[in-house]
Amino acid sequence: MPSYVADGEPDVSWVIDHSDNAIVVCDEAARVTWINQGFTRMFGYTPEDALGRRPSDFLAGPHTDPETVEWVRGQLHTQQGYRTELLVYAKNGVPLWISAVVNPVFDPERNVRYLLGVYTDITHSKLHEEMHRKVLSAIVREQPLQEVLTLICREVEKVMPEAVASVIGVDDYGRLRPLASPSLPDQIATLIDGELAGPMVGACGSAAWSGQPVECRDIERDPRWQSHNAPFLALGIRACWSSPVKGNDGRVLGTFALYYWENRAPDEFHLRVADVCLHLCALAMERERERARMHQLSFFDTLTGLPNRALFNSKVEQMLLGAARRDSQVALLFVDIDRFKIVNDTQGHTAGDALLRELAKRLGSELRDGDVVARLAGDEFVLAIPDRTAEEAANLADRLMARLSEPLSAGRMILTPQASVGVAMFPTDGWDVDSLVRHADIAMYRAKSEGGGRIVFYSLEMNQAMQERLALENALREAVRSGQLRLHYQPQVALDDDASLHGVEALLRWRHPEIGEISPATFVPMAEECGLIDELGRWTLEEACTQMADWRRRGVPVPRVSVNLSAINFEQQDLPTFIGNVLGKCGLSPDELMVEVTESVMLAQKPEVLANIDAIHRMGVSLSIDDFGTGYSSLSHLHRLPISELKLDMSFVRDLEHSESARALTTSILRIGESLSLKVVAEGVENAAQRAVLASLNCDLLQGYYVSRPLSPHSLERWVSLQPPTE
Ligand code: C2E
Ligand code: CA
Ligand code: CA
């Protein structure tokens, strides 16, 4: 009869010896009376080692939870079974997570006779679970990367006393950046920091470089360690095993390494632990990368890479605190590029963007450590320069202007950029970032209105002027809405003996209840800046057409009306529809309306502007180029545009009598008109002498005080009625 069968039954203890579980029988005082061989395999204790001792005494170790042990002992008196999970230690010191199920066995008198314990090794799943729980909660709590990785190392070392763990990051330039190695002295991290990853740079350097795990059983002799092993050997480290930590995209983010005190390779357990760690390290490092990217996005301007307003504000706040403590000054420079919009409109956004990037680079090149430069919006830059007097700030601003205005090409143009700079000083002009920026902005605005290309320091008086301007803007808003605006009409007549009426130009008039008449040369640009120009343009078009319709009905012989529109009006997609509707409503034909625009509108590259120009022309409404001769139009451009009239700028007319060059320019403009079959209107003709020169040069049409001032509708009717009848 085989030994594993007793009395026809299997030999139970022989069978139980084959279980993977550790099974233990204790007496009522919890002392071991029997263990199976599974117990010896799991913990290394033989029956001789274990008999007569309490398992909780010899299995507990440094990281065993004392409360759970206490609880287990308390269970003895309850006479009930229990189940628990516990970190214990094998005889050789290796930690193990076990799940213990313990049941009392009663004698016939219902006294506890034995305790039967079944222990299962759950190290792997438990380690997984424990590490995940701790590390993920640290990540969720937004703990710094270094802390999270240190936690991982410590957890590993808890279950693996024979090893030391370390995590190293790899930066964008392939350099090693130690992140966590809580059990190694700091000098080691200092030594490694900044090393370029490579095949001969220890286990971590070569794992980071190759993207493969690297095993070095003997760092003293391993060729990859030759120039690195001394400090490690000095600590007693003999071997190292390093694996690359990879991100979702497969990129090596860093390395996770185990160092050993003896020449050896990782065992099965180490492989499993490392697997969990690599996953967690990748998670933490990816998250950090994402956080850095978000930081970059939320604090930096994507076009130029400069700090944005948020970052500028927080940096300058710090700067001001420091300056207040040191009793020193800070200069705040507000830089705005002159005529940037023209580049953007005529050369396209790509060229505009390239220009901004180049200018940002130039601004940065003149700065010292500690200076801050940011792009606020569009073509607006701000700089904060600590520890400078107003005079030094002026010198710096001079240098910046010189640097900015070096020629460069944008699209098809060679530009010499020019900037307007406003300066506000801390603490004289403001105590906080907001007021300093606002005041520097006001000063910049003044620089701009004085013609640009200059530096202006903020003053209190400027602030008042700005307040007044704001008040005026509000008044204009009110005026547009409450009908304080009117149109006057200035006749344009043929420059022949008949002097027949060609048309009238509608010109805006605004009488402010307190200030009196305000010139459109003042309030039209204001309306453009404060967003009122769209409304204003529509109002003018509708009013002029309504007036024309009225004259038409009453037989007043005004052949057409010219209306001035701004560049911004041409950016409104529905402009042609609007014009069409107004004409329809007033019962006018398209040739009774003419639209005056400046050259820059015509040169615009914006598709919506070009589409509008085209659509208006196709409707039959004529286009006229205002202030011709002052802009950049080239002949080659002109002949492609659907225009029918040029308005010779007043400045030429004014100088006609005395200036040879004004006469020459006028002549050439008239010849351009002739060759393109465009009518030319001379504006601002004030006297007979000017008229005579223009007549000798064959100019078609006259407009100016010599003919008539702009007139109210009523006065214009009178003027018309006093003209000798033509025919
Ligand atoms: P502009 O379109 O060049 O208008 C001609 C300006 O010259 C008018 O000034 C007119 O009153 C003035 N003027 C006419 N004849 C003479 C003259 O013989 N001598 C002198 N020295 N000046 C003369 P105003 O009405 O003050 O308008 C100034 C500017 O305001 C206009 O220049 C135009 O750019 C703008 N503007 C006027 N009305 C409107 C409008 O309805 N919409 C838009 N967008 N702009 C307008
Ligand atoms: Ca005009
Ligand atoms: Ca004009």
TrEMBL record:
Domain EAL: residue ranges: 469-724
InterPro entries recorded: Biofilm_reg_signaling, Diguanyl_cyclase/Pdiesterase, EAL_dom, EAL_sf, GAF, GAF-like_dom_sf, GGDEF_dom, Nucleotide_cyclase
Top-level taxonomic group: Bacteria
Gene3D superfamilies (alphabetical): 3.30.450.40, 3.30.70.270, EAL domain (3.20.20.450), PAS domain (3.30.450.20)
Domain PAC span(s) in chain numbering: 82-134
Residue intervals of the PAS domain: 8-53
Protein's name according to its UniProt entry: Bifunctional diguanylate cyclase/phosphodiesterase
